[in-house]
Design a protein that fits this description.
2 domains, 3-stranded antiparallel beta sheet, single chain, alpha/beta, 8-stranded mixed beta sheet, Rossmann fold, Arc Repressor Mutant, subunit A, about 300 residues
Length: about 300
């Protein structure tokens, strides 16, 4: 790595610290071919990035380490994911970032392991010129704060440590106005999806954030691995403000509150999923409602999402 490439060192150190819990000044100095003084300077920026997101770092002679209450949640974040889930998240996130994330885009980035994989791909594919607004503080999302050529806004609010996101962010439905006017692409996911009800999510405050993202978006990209279809979340069903069917624009025209959202009836929606081995596109339940486009192992469902007040 070039000696002066500080912008690439910071996210690399950050990711290693979040994964391993501690890093050594000597090892990083040798690995990056820079002085230990330079690495200690990098530590200052890493510590500040983590402090702003509620994570605490302890300095010791020869390195830094995450305090126990900070590292344990992140270890659980990765360890509860199966290999099949990890492979699907990698496949889908790589495809979405390559095909849907363009230079100079403004993104509303949802939270969860799949969206953490999207953040990883944004860095890996060296996407630049992006403006990203997020309620997530997953490891790879945190890494984007140190990525060159990307403007990041953390919405803040009340942290949910188990899901690594903020909810009840300030600003209500106009949360984005202090930052950018858009247009925004909302990149989202959910716990499950049932064709007769819609997107399923476990936590009502996370539902509220997804609704806000959709209302602010000019386009929604919903990433769902094939195992999410017909899967039931524990308690709560969210239509993200949509009832009864997320693909029937006519319903929005009939049920919209007068004077609310009259400028937009619907927002473009692309649902991106993977095709499991031995299956055909018609085996995916959603294909009975929306025409399926295939691109190798990827299935795309394009429709319009009605906005219901």
């Amino acid at each position: 790595m070039p000696k002066g490439d500080k912008e690439k060192r910071i996210p690399a150190i950050l990711m290693r610290l979040l994964k391993d819990g501690r890093v050594s000044t000597h090892d990083l100095s040798a690995g990056f071919n820079v002085t230990e003084v330079a690495i200690r300077g990098d530590f200052e920026e890493v510590i500040e990035l983590l402090r702003l997101r509620g994570l605490h770092v302890h300095r010791f002679y020869g390195g830094i380490e995450l305090e126990q209450q900070s590292i344990q949640p992140y270890r659980g974040f990765y360890e509860t994911q199966s290999k099949a889930e990890t492979d699907a998240a990698h496949l889908l996130s790589e495809y979405v970032v390559r095909n849907f994330v363009k230079w100079d885009d403004s993104l509303l980035l949802d939270t969860g392991r799949t969206l953490d994989a999207v953040a990883y791909q944004i860095a890996a594919q060296q996407k630049s010129g992006l403006r990203i607004m997020t309620n997530s503080f997953t490891p790879n999302v945190l890494g984007l704060y140190a990525q060159g050529g990307i403007e990041m806004v953390q919405l803040g609010g009340t942290p949910l440590m188990r899901t690594f996101c903020y909810v009840k962010c300030p600003g209500g439905d106009e949360f984005y106005q202090p930052y950018w006017s858009g247009p925004f692409k909302a990149v989202m996911t959910g716990s499950g999806f049932q064709t007769d009800s819609g997107l399923l999510v476990n936590h009502p405050d996370i539902i509220d954030m997804k609704r806000r993202f959709i209302k602010a978006a000019s386009e929604v990209i919903l990433i769902l691995s094939h195992d999410r279809f017909q899967k039931t979340a524990r308690d709560t069903v969210t239509f993200c403000g949509l009832k009864p069917d997320p693909w029937l624009v006519e319903y929005a025209a009939q049920h919209r509150t007068p004077g609310v959202g009259q400028d937009r009836e619907a927002v473009p929606l692309t649902i991106v999923t993977d095709l499991p081995p031995g299956k055909h596109p018609e085996d995916i339940p959603l294909s009975r409602h929306i025409p399926c486009q295939t691109d190798g192992k990827i299935c795309l469902f394009k429709t319009r999402l009605p906005l219901v007040a």
